[in-house]
Specification:
alpha/beta, TIM Barrel, eight-stranded parallel beta barrel, binds phosphoenolpyruvate, glycolysis
Amino acid sequence: MARTKYVAGNWKMNMDKAGAVALAQGLVESLKGLNAKYMIAPPFVYLDAVSQVVKGSNIILGAQNMTVTDNGAHTGAISWAMLKDLGVETVILGHSERRDEFNESDKLINEKVHKALDNGLDVVLCIGELYSQRVAGVTNQICENQVKEGFAGVKEDQLSHISIAYEPVWAIGTGKTATPAEAQEVHAFVRNVIKGLYSQKAADEIKILYGGSMNDGNAEELLAQPDIDGGLIGGASLKVDKFTTICKFASK
Ligand code: PEP
C-alpha cells in the first residue's frame, strides 16, 4: 500500500538563533508545493523563533525530546505543555543519543510515548542496534525488544500518531550508511513486529523511517525500498539544499 513519505530533520545541538531562523526560512521556500510530510526539530531554545517561520507552511515543528513529568520542580526539564505552547506537534523520543548520553531506558521512553500521545503530540520513536549487536547477529532481536517496550500499552487507534525511525547506531553521524538492502531487511522485520502486536492494517499503515547518515547522495535509493517510508536526517538536515533534495526524492 502507498504510504505518504515522511522526512524529518533532527538539528540536534547545532547553530545559533539567526542560523536556525535562516535555515527554517530557506526550507519554507524550497519545500513549497512538495507533497510528502516534512518535519524539523530545532534545539528547544530556538523553537519559538522557528515556530513563527514555519507557521502556515507545509513543515511540521518537532522537538528533539520531552520530559515525562507534567510540571513542577524538575530543573532544566521541558514538558509537553511547554512544547505545545510553542506550536510543536511532534516529538522525537528514544534517540540513541538520549539512550546513550542520558541513560534513557525503554521503560522511560515508553512513559514519554504515552505522555506525548495522551496530550496530543505525535511521536517519532527511534530504535536501532549498536555495531557490536549487528556483528553479534542480534539486530532483529534488539529492534523487536525496543519496539515491544516502546509501544507497550499503546492502543491501535493511537498508531496514526506514532512513526518509527530505524537508526542503526553505528550509522548515525558516522558517514556509514546501512545499504538499502540492509535497511530494507530490518524495516520489513519491524513492520512484521507491528503486525504481530496489532494487525496487518496497522503494519501496512505505520511509517518506518530510516536514519543514519542519509544524505542527498544516498536518499533516492534508500527511499525506493518498499518498507522505507522516509528519513530521520541529522547532518544533512542542516543545509537547505541537501535537505531539500532528500525531500524532493520523498515527494516523487
Ligand atoms: C540522527 O541524528 O537521527 C541521524 C540520523 O543523524 P545523521 O543523519 O547525522 O547520521
